[in-house]
Fold this sequence. Notes:
By secondary structure, this protein is of the alpha+beta class. It has helices spanning 11-36, 44-73, 86-115, 138-173, 177-182, 197-215, 226-229, 302-306, and strands at 247-260, 263-268, 272-279, 284-292, 318-327, 332-341, 344-357, 360-370, 389-400.
Amino acid sequence: MLSNTPTSYGTLARAFHWLVALLILSAVALGLYGESLPRNAETIDTLKTLYSAHKTIGVAAFFTALARILWALVQPRPAPLHPERRLETFGAELVHWALYGAMLVMPASGWISHAAQAGFAPILWPFGQTLPFVPQSDAVAHAAEGVHKLSALVLYAAVALHILGALKHVVIDRDATLARMTRGTAAGPGRAEHSALAPLLALVVWAAVVSVALLVPPPAEEGAAPAEAAATAPAPAATPAAAAGNWQVTQGTLGFTVKQMGAEVSGSLPTWTADIAYDEATGTGTVTVTIDTTTLALGSVSDQAKGPEFFDTAAHPSATFTAAISRGAGTAHTATGTLTLRGTEVPVVLPFTLTIAGDTATMTGETTLDRRAFGMGATYPDEAMVGFNVGVQIALTATRKN
């Protein structure tokens, strides 16, 4: 029989039950195994496969669980075999509703975290990797990841209690509770009043889970070494020299891109100053840019990027680019100088365009650096985990000083 009765579960409800169980347990197993693997060139292909499968199965579990819950809402729910055991019956219903919440919240939060942040290991389907109304935001990704991890703990507890309850019915009570879900056996009195308090309390539990997860600061990047995790507290910001040039920057961005596990990710260095002296008549000048590296942002690996392996912001909280400016044809210019980063000086050439309208100048430029020149990522000798080339993009608007 496809539908439920007051004493038995129908074929569709039983199929949904076991399919959701298989999907969620498979996704959990893949996720836990992926977390246990080291992050290096040897494991890159395995990690991509594991996490793509984990995410794909998680999305499938979400839709299957949603269909199961919608079906359950329009079906009669078989009565418990021992309605006179009020406390036991209430506990079973509470666990039941907590599981319903876990089946939706856990995969949904993981999906939102994936959609909010570009990265490797895509969902294996043709419908894209983003979600409507979910912005590309590190904050959203961290918040969703927090909900995902905390909801996993609720899932583990609810599944454990659910299994223990089933075993009790088989070993101690020796009744047909499990047989109703495995074979569709009809059993029980066929009448019972289900508590409205159980779903309400489960809703309160899930509201608390989501609230706590959103309030807890994001942890250090998973897989980072202890020394990297210890560098998460921002180091004191650099104190730039007073601007002595004839142009004052009013707004600007300093961004960079690098490949992580084969996928391009974007970062930014939001705190910096530029001391610019430029002569329009000759098209020459000088520039000194002082960058506060402790404010670096690079998605979910910001803390790792600040660690000793890469920017080492604890020891080197600032970087400096000093260059001479020369003009080419039209608006084309070049800044030729030295970038001091991690205590290492490297020659850098930055091509850029410059347009001046009255007392306002607009500049955009980009160049490519090699992380190895600065001693970054020594334990990543190839590009499987972290690319060698780092694209740097800068744009600013400046006004002439009186």
